[in-house]
Amino acid sequence: MESPDHQRSMTSQLDDIRTAIDEIDEEIVALIWRRERLVRLAGPLKDNDAEVKAPGRVEEVLEHVRATAEAQDGDPTVVEATYRAMIDAFMDYELKVRHEAETQAKLDAFSRS
């Protein structure tokens, strides 16, 4: 049976780990926000939905992040799964931004006619 001091020590360590994870999450959210701003700029520059979906580019990104994870002794499977989810979310967002820009352009053209 573990002593109460040992249990408190483990709880303290877990609290410290959770605090560190929270700090990392805040950094990740800031980076995601930076990526979102760039996606918002890129969306209207693409001519069609196929350019947004760009499966070749998706594979390039996944290969790059897997290699980066491996170089840092990280788990490339976890990194790839995380990036797949992120890419899917950003792709949906970019399609939305592109469609909104197209709609606005049509409204602007209509109001000028």
Automatic annotation (TrEMBL):
List the SMART domains hit by this protein, alphabetically. Answer: CM_2 (SM00830)
Alphabetized SUPFAM superfamilies for the sequence: Chorismate mutase II
Q: Which UniProt keywords apply?
A: Isomerase
Q: Which domain of life does the protein's organism represent?
A: Bacteria
Q: Does this entry carry the keyword NAD?
A: no
The family database entries (PANTHER family) matched by this protein are listed as: CHORISMATE MUTASE
The protein's name: Chorismate mutase
Query: What are the top taxonomic ranks of the organism?
Result: Bacteria, Bacillati, Actinomycetota, Actinomycetes, Micrococcales
